[in-house]
Design a protein that fits this description.
The chain is an all-alpha fold. The chain is built from five helices and no strands. Helix 2 runs antiparallel to helix 4, helix 3 packs parallel to helix 5 and helix 4 packs antiparallel against helix 5. The protein is elongated.
């Protein structure tokens, strides 16, 4: 398998992150037009006056920038060290699938227990990638 094969799951997650980013202003503008929030509610981030459904895309966006940083670094390290193989690509897709499912669930039904399960699956897959990468470097 080409080392570049791991770029596709990276790109999919990055594009999804940009899509979620675009939901933030759309949600805020819609809420402002409905009189649910005011500009001052966002002066220092999000005030307690911001309804949960309005802050949800912003929180999901932050989630997409936290743990995935370790994913992007691992993938780039694999490319640079020329260690990309089929298993790493499958693991990368597993992580991205778990993150996309987590994100979709977060912004729809927001079932916390299911979200936790999806988060744990993604984190475990990412941990496997890092343990394998670390062991191959020893």
């Amino acid at each position: 398998m080409s080392p570049n094969a791991i770029l596709l799951p990276m790109c999919v997650l990055a594009l999804w992150t940009f899509l979620v980013l675009n939901l933030i202003p759309l949600t805020r503008i819609r809420a402002a037009r409905a009189g649910l929030v005011h500009v001052k509610d966002f002066r220092y981030g999000e005030s307690a006056n911001v309804p949960g459904d309005v802050s949800l895309p912003n929180r999901d966006y932050m989630n997409l920038l936290e743990l995935p940083v370790l994913f992007y670094v691992a993938c780039l390290a694999l490319i640079v060290t020329q260690r990309v193989d089929d298993l790493y690509v499958w693991l990368a897709w597993g992580f991205v699938t778990a993150r996309l499912a987590h994100s979709l669930l977060h912004m729809t039904t927001n079932n916390v227990l299911y979200r936790l399960g999806l988060f744990a699956i993604g984190a475990t897959v990412l941990l496997i990638m890092w343990v394998r990468l670390t062991l191959s470097a020893i």
